[in-house]
Every structure is written in structure tokens, then in C-alpha cells.
Amino acid sequence: MDTDSGMEHITDSLCKVSAPGDINIAILGSVHFGIKNAQPWILPDLSACMMFDFITFVQTLAAIHTIETINDSGFLPGIKLGYQMCDPCSYAAKSLLCVTHMLNVNGSLPIISDFSSFNSPVKVFLGDRYTETSIPAAKLLGLYRIPQIGCSASAAALSDKFRYTSFFRVIPSNIYQTQALAKLLRHFKWNWIGMVTLDDEYGKGFYENFLPQAEEQGACLAFHEVVSHYQNVEERIKEVADRIRANSSVKAVLLILRVQQVEMLFQEMIKTNTSRIWIGSNTWSVASQIMNMKGINELGDILGISLIIGEVPGLADYLQNLTIGPGVRNDFIREYKQMRFNCSSGQQSEYVSPSACNVTDPQEANDDYLLHAVELRSAYNQRVAVYAIAHAIKELLQCNDTCCPGDTDFMPYKLLDVLREVNFTLDNHTYYFNENGDFETGYDIMMWKKNGDVRMSEVVGKFFVKNRELEIYEQNIPWANDKVPLSRCSDPCPPGMEKKMANNSCCYSCSYCSEGYYSNEMDQPNCKKCSEGYSSLPGSSECQKLDIWCLKWSSCYSIVVLVGASIGFALLLFSLILFTRHRTNPILQEFFAISCLMKLGLMVSFGSVILFLGSPNIHLCRAQQTMYGLGFTLCVSCILGKTTHIFLEAKSSNPAKQHKLKKLDKPFALVIVLTSGQVLICIFWLIFDPLNVEETPSKTHPLTVNHVCKQGSMHGFGAMHMYIALLALVCFVLAFKGRDDETEPIVFSMLIHLFSWLCFIPIFITQDEARPIVQISAIMVSNYGVIFCHFAPKWYKIFSEMADNSEVANHPEDPLGDADSGVITEAVSIDRMSQSQFSLAESESSDWDINSLSLSESHCC
Hints:
Blueprint: E1 15-19, E2 23-28, E3 32-36, E4 48-52, H1 54-73, E5 81-86, H2 92-103, E6 124-126, H3 131-144, E7 148-150, E8 167-169, H4 174-187, E9 192-198, H5 201-216, E10 220-227, H6 233-246, E11 252-256, H7 259-271, E12 277-280, H8 288-291, E13 302-307, H9 315-320, E14 329-330, H10 331-341, H11 369-373, H12 380-396, H13 412-421, E15 423-426, E16 429-432, E17 443-451, E18 454-464, E19 469-472, E20 497-501, E21 508-512, E22 517-518, E23 528-529, E24 534-535, E25 544-545, E26 547-549, H14 556-581, H15 586-589, H16 592-611, H17 618-650, H18 655-664, H19 667-688, E27 692-697, E28 704-710, H20 715-737, H21 743-766, H22 771-809, H23 817-842, H24 850-860
Parallel strand pairs: 2-5, 2-6, 6-7, 7-8, 9-10, 9-11, 11-12, 12-13, 26-28
Antiparallel strand pairs: 1-5, 1-14, 3-4, 13-17, 15-16, 17-18, 18-19, 20-21, 22-23, 24-25, 27-28
Helix pairs in contact: 1-12, 2-3, 4-5, 6-7, 12-13, 14-16, 14-22, 16-17, 16-22, 17-19, 17-20, 19-20, 20-21, 21-22, 23-24
């Protein structure tokens, strides 16, 4: 605001406004907001108030208008409210001076030992606009127990009734304003902000209360600047402007300043066309003089939080027809009219009326300037405060419809007690003071929208004190391109990423969500885990249903396994039928029963392969392992029994030794004992290390879970296979030592079994998802190894004999005649028998006696 001499006014007395009444109300109003020639430690005090404040002026007029309305309405029958007004000029020391001046009795303020003995000429104070001037007044008035009702001083400290006993206010504490601002920042996701505050009690208290609220809502201060209200203001404002420009990443700046400092700062910003999101406190969020600044539309978006405002009935007419009634003193009205309508000084000011030089008497002139210069609704709290006083007086004086019988010269502390309990309705709203002497009305969220070359404020939200909830009317906020501007230390993390915090809680880097986690919104602090049955790839914004992998019946591998098992079954069945029909054949006769048990074991082993297909369950898991273990153990046990028999016969050339070895040659007993050993292993395995079904993520196929059998701790599984391997190894050693036509199949079949598992075990251990395929493959190889090594050669021999017999039987010419054919057939049979015995003899060890072999050949001949 212009500070030229036309706007300066030096007070010649403290109280320039007064009107007589039965009960007097004291009004503190900083109609001037500056001090001229303030020089501490220098006497006499030559300081004077200057710079007219239209907002405070209108607010004090609203209070006076409300007092006059109450007097005219008969609200207090027979009682007239009077008032005195003093201007502290926004200066704390002058505030105390005003209070002492209005409390003085016979020119002095008495020192009292008991507040109940002091009867003040004024019964209640209507507090000043600023916290800086309200706090010292509240401390002094608390000593005398004289109530003070604030209309806009919102410092949280004033809620402390131990320090400010007699202070009330018709607004909430700043605690709630800081909560509202912090939630406003959170709502629009502005977490990197700048803050500029005054160095007075209001600014300091606001900063202290706001900081924890901002941290709770996830916002951080990029910078905090403090501006003095009294010294080097313009120079400091320029420094703050430079700091704001330098922090280009800070798009939202919170201004906890008075109207005058905000106006100066905005002028600096307009010079460099600096655009930001400006957020104001209740001190300037509805200041019309800033809304009407030249170039205000270049500054960017402006939001603020305002005390709930309303219409003061009749105030507009009152301001357009300002008059000073009889018996009333109001030098501030005179000063305003002199400034507005006097042109004799020749000053050129935006506050001088264009028709000033056509006015004969400035004190008789009026216009509607105040209606446009000030947001009239901001004066609504003065109306509420005056009515709170009037209701308390009405209750104290026990007023009825016709009179107020109580004593009007009451002690102020009595009014203090009544105010604590007052509860009244005004303009369809109910008001009362809480235990801290505050109203719990709430706040309006304002946005300054462009209106030509100026701005106009509009309510775009509410903050409710009782439930601490913020409500934003999104449809009323016209963001450019429908995109909320950002004010952040770091760019937001897109879906599929999470924040990795740096040293500052608002500064972070973005990293992709790991597998099985997702983030489906912007700027998520942590990725969320997918629910059961779902998973995701790294960096995913959503989860997908997991594909369950198992050896499905329709898969190619399963079909191959089924075909292989079926062929195996068919070969075993064919072998069983063939061997049964030729069981008297010397090739089969000795080990026919053992051979049948081997086929049974292999059939069970082939059956276990089929159980690996399809979706497994705990019963199938147990059955597939035990069937293979017992089936193949039975087969190997039969082979070992046969091998032992051959080995013992080879070692029994000595008749004495032969008798002892015969006792060990018990193939069936050996088969039962060895198979029983595997039965015990399986039982202990299933009891102490049970199998189960597990789902493990696939290492090769994303978003796939392998639904396979879990082998427990592998101890039982290992014991089962080691047992089979041990039997196979013993078979191999015994057969290798007695190499002949009968033992060669044993050697090769056991080598195939051991080699297959030796190859498959490393894959089985390292690749969980390949375990079923590996085990099936090993079982099939082992089974077919036995079939082709043990049974196929015998098929060949049987078919060869059948072919030879068929050739002899169907010979067209027999030179020996029918009588000799039987002899020839018998000779052929004897010859084949001798060949068989010769083969058996050949399998004996190298230390056999050559004579024994000659005898044997002679016998066969």
C-alpha cells in the first residue's frame, strides 16, 4: 500500500471512537498497520501510526453496526450498549497502552490484590485482528479477569486457559488451520513446499504447529523464510522473492503473512512473471486489495483457507451511508472520508475518489468504495462476537421481554463466568465456546479465480473441525488442462514401481516392483504382494492368475509316457504268456517262477509311472513312490536271487563245498527278505518324512507354479533309491564275476539302471520342476533295460527253437525213414541239452579243473 504523506495519520489520542451506553464494550482495532519513527530506547516517544487498513476499518465498523442494531432491536430491553475503540496500530506495546487507557479509573490503572474488587469502566473487550496485539492484551486482561473475545487471532497458544484465563474467540485454534492446510497439501499431492512466515507470535506459532502436521501428511519444507513486520521489510521481501525463484522445483508456497507483506511479495513476483501455487492463511485469503492488484493473473493459482464467512445484514447500506450520530465520536470515519473525498492536497492516490474535487464537504460524502475494496463477508465474525457478548449480558442481567432487572454495573469476572456457558443461535447456526474458549466452526477452502484482470474468491471446499475431515469440491476447481499442478521433490513413480526413500522423506527414487508384487497407482510407497493364486512379473501394475503346471494328460510328454507304459505292459504280458506256454523249456524251467515275479515287479513299476500324470494329490504322491520302490525292488531282488543261484552253482564244484553253499541258495527267501527291507524303508519314510504336494514358482516359465509332489526332506527318497542301487550294484558284481550267457543280461540291465539314475540324479536335485519328468524317464529306461536284457534274448531263443523244430518237423525227405526219425529228434534234443550244460560249465571261474570240463562234455555226449 502507498505510504506517502497523504496516507499517514498521527494520532493525538489513543481512543478515537466512543459512544455512551449503560454497559461499555471496548474494541481493539488496528485501523493503521504501521509505525512511523519507532525508535526504541529514545524518549520522548515520537512514534505514530500510519498506513490506513481498510480491512480492519470495515471490521470495526461491522462491530459498531452490530452494537447499534442490537440497541435498536430491543434485544436488551432498557439497556443500551456503549463502546470505546482504540487503535494499537498492529504494535504489541501500543496494544497494552490501549488496554490500560480504557481500564483506567480517574486517570490511572489501580493495582489490585483481588480481581473481584476491581470494577472496570468497560466490561468486555472485542479483540484486535492480529495475534501479535491480542496476546499481550490477553495477559493483562487475564489478571483482572476481564473477558476478551477475539475475532481473528487464531494462535494455538491462546487456547491455554492457564496462561490466558479470560480469552475467548469465535474461531477455531490454529491447530485446526494447520491440519486443514496439511490435508489440503496431501489432497493435491503437493509434498515439496516453501513457507514464508512473519516473525511475530502468529507466524512462529503457525510454523511450530504446521511442521508436525505436514510431516504426518507426507509433506516436507524445501525452505522456510521469515519476514520481519517492523524492520527492513522491503529488503527482506526481495530476498524472499529471490529464494522462491531459485527453488524452481517448489511449485507450492505457503504464505503465513499479513495482507501488506503478501501484496509486496506479489509485486516482486509480478516483475519477473514468476508463477507458483500460492496458499494463504486466513489473514489474507479473502483480501480484496490483493485480488484487485494489477498483474495478479500472472502469478498462477491462488488458494487459501478462510474462517467461515457470512453476510452481515445491513452492513453494505451502512458503509454506503456512513454518518457519525449525535453523541458519537469516530475519528476513523473522518480520516477515511478526508482521504477519500479531499482533493485540496493535490495528491494522486488510488484511494482518492474521482469525484473528490466536486465534493463540497468530504464528511458529508459517501460512495460504495468500501464494498469493493474489502470482502464484507470477512467481517461476519465481528457480528458473531458482539452477539455472544449480548447473549451473555442478557443472561447475566436476567432480561425478559420487557426489561433487564440485573445490575448493569456488574463485575467483569461475572460476565466471564456466563460467557463460558453461553449457547446461542444466530442466522440459523448454533454457537458456543468449548473448554478452551474457542468456537469449533471450521474453515472454508477458497480459490481465487480469474475475473477479467482481477481475481474473485470462491469456496471450493470445507474443513470440519469436529471430525478433522477435509472436503474438496473438485468440480469447482478449474485446473489448466484438467491436470493438477505438481509440487514435488521427485517425479511421481508410475504404476509398477515403488518409492525408495532418500535422506529426505519427500525425495526418493523409483524402483520396479519385484516378482510377485505390484503397484497399481501412482507414487506408491511400497509394492503390494499379490494375493494367493496370483503373481506378477517384475515391474507389474497388476497381478495375473497363476498358471498351474503339472504333467497334464493331454500333453505330448504324457502321451509318450502312456504309450511307453502301455508298450511295456504289453511286452510284459506277452512275455508272461510266452514263458507260461514254454515253461518246460530248459531255458525257462529253472527260473520260471522268479521270472514271473520280475514281470510283476516291472508291471507295478510301469503302473507307478502313470500315477505321475495329471494333477497330484497327497495320496498319488505316496502311491507313485511306493509303487516304484516296491515294484522295482521286487524285480531287482529276483535278479539278485537268480544271480546268487548262478554264482553259488559256479562256486560249488567241490562236493563238500557244494553242500554248504546249497544252504545259501534260497532265491525265494532272498526275494522276500530284500523286498521286505524296502517295505520297511517306505513305511518309515511315509511316517516320519511324509510326502506332500507343493506349489513352487517355475524358474523357466513366468507366472507359472509347478504343482508337484514334495519328497519331504529327501532322506526317505534317498534311502529308497540307495537301497535299489545297492541291490543293483551287488547284482552287477556277482554277475560280472561269473560272466557267461546267463549273467551278461544281468550285467547290462544293472549297468543301464545305475547309469540312468547316475545321469538323472543331478538334474533331479537341481531342477525342481523337472523332477517328475526325470523320475519317469529313469523308471522307463530301467524297466525297458530289464525287459530287453532279460526277456528279449529268451524270446529270441524260444522263437529260434520253435523255428528249428518247425523246420525238422516239416522236412520233405527223411533218409532214415519213420523208424529213425524219433532217434534223430532225440539226438537233436540231447545235443541241445549238452549245449546248455556246456554253457553252464563255461560260466565257472578260471581255476576250474580241465578234467571236470572234459567229464562234463563226455557225459553230455
